[in-house]
Specification:
Layout lengths: L27 E7 L3 H18 L13 E9 L6 H9 L7 E13 L2 E7 L4 H15 L12 E6 L6 E10 L1 E8 L4 E9 L2
Antiparallel strand pairs: 1-2, 1-7, 3-4, 3-6, 4-5, 7-8
């Protein structure tokens, strides 16, 4: 990993100082996201447990409050910037997108070097997610526009892949997007700001 990956995406931030891994201090990221409502989160958990049973998957499903569809990554570094929500808020005021329905109806796996990631994807309603992501990327003026975007929701980090397969659709109305502070490697997410779709 190069120093470039530790630079904030927002213009105007200084390079975040590196911290030695040995100190045990977490690295922090901030990203925009769509989060399911409580009812949808319950349904997603049911789908996850069924997929684990049917496919013999090991691992611990993501916590309800950590379930999300990632939108642009806007910052990463050694220490979280407390002024970040205010700066992001000033930039996303230009975003215009009415509330829309999200339908997750396909399970699949993404491969990483030492593990697999079980995710839910969408075969319908993806145009609205792409549109919102595109607006946010340009609003942020970030390097995120160079990163390929595949809308999905991570369910589980596990030991083996699953075949791509349809699942009973999980639906919810996206009425807002949020700024998430992620404590990398600790399984901890905090929603630090939110904005209504309009």
């Amino acid at each position: 990993m190069t120093d470039e990956t530790h630079q904030p995406f927002l213009p105007g931030f200084a390079l975040a100082p590196r911290r030695p891994r040995a100190t045990g201090l977490p690295k922090h990221k901030a990203f925009l996201a769509l989060k399911p409502d409580d009812c949808a989160a319950e349904r997603i958990s049911e789908v996850t447990l069924r997929l684990m049973r049917e496919n013999g998957l090991a691992g611990r499903p993501l916590k309800h409050k950590n379930l999300h569809i990632s939108l642009p990554l806007v910052w990463e570094g050694a220490e979280f910037r407390p002024d970040l929500p205010e700066i992001v808020s000033a930039r996303v005021q230009m975003v215009r997108m009415p509330p829309f329905e999200i339908i997750l109806d396909m399970a699949m796996s993404f491969r990483q070097p030492k593990r697999h990631i079980l995710v839910l994807g969408a075969t319908r309603s993806v145009a609205n997610i792409y549109n919102l992501n595109r607006q946010l990327v340009f609003a942020m003026g970030s390097r995120a526009r160079k990163i390929a975007f595949t809308p999905h929701m991570t369910l589980l980090y596990t030991n083996k892949p699953v075949d791509k397969q349809p699942v009973e659709p999980v639906r919810w109305m996206a009425r807002e997007f949020v700024l998430v502070h992620s404590f990398v490697g600790l399984g901890r997410h905090e929603t630090v700001a939110r904005w209504p779709l309009r």
